[in-house]
Amino acid sequence: xxxxxxxKRMKKLGxxxxxxxxxxxxxxxxxxxxxxxxxxxQSEELWVSIDRYGVMRPSRVRGKAxxxxxxxxxxxxxxxxxxxxxxxxxxxPFHLGTSAAGYGPRILSLxxxxxxxxxxxxxxxxxxxxxxxxxxxxCVPAFTDGTFFNWxxxxxxxxxSLSSIASRNFVEVPNDDEMRKNIRRVPMKAxxxxxxxxxxxxxxxxxxxxxxxxxxxxxxxxxxxxxxFMPAMxxxxxxxxxxxxxxxxxxxxxxxxxxxxxxxxxxxKR
Length: 270
Known about the structure:
It holds the Pfam family PhyH. The chain is α+β, with helices and mostly antiparallel strands and 270 residues long.
């Protein structure tokens, strides 16, 4: 799908089917998905992201044989594969800014910038089986809390001082970092929910199989500690009627998760 369209670019999806998939909206308000995030974040009052899909096409082509076409059975399209060792954070380890993909932007106070705040997490729902050969999620297990902050402290005056790193919330792990030796792949069945701490170095490994790998990314944040985020529906240009498909209307839980209704059931937000 290419680079994620942050909310300023989400309007570009207006002429596509991507934003109007009823099941994607239902997934965002699914009570089981909500409960998993609520348990991890230890908060009942959450806002959900309006996030993207992740699609990795197969790079292995099944052979054909007829009068006009003949392909070997295991034709591999290497140029269709993604970066092999892609590893990054959506949370800058040095200034702790978080990538606001799927939300509208919110300006932090000076106090908020100086505090880490509550745990920050990201997630995905698998829309297809994701065995290793189809590519998918990988990470460096247990690289959180003290390990994460110690790494940041050690690299702050070197890697962290680069202008290309200091100015971003999205940060790639250096190619020569020792942590790469500990990368582990995470195969999953269709319909699985994966939630990980944003401190965890993570990424995708290439699809070398015959089938598509498809996921829906999803995040939730505590209303009382939203950091850089605000619900995308609070942005003036973000129209409910324009984005909701005809066959979908938010549930009571969905209205709250999307920021269209206060969690205390006060007046509806527009």
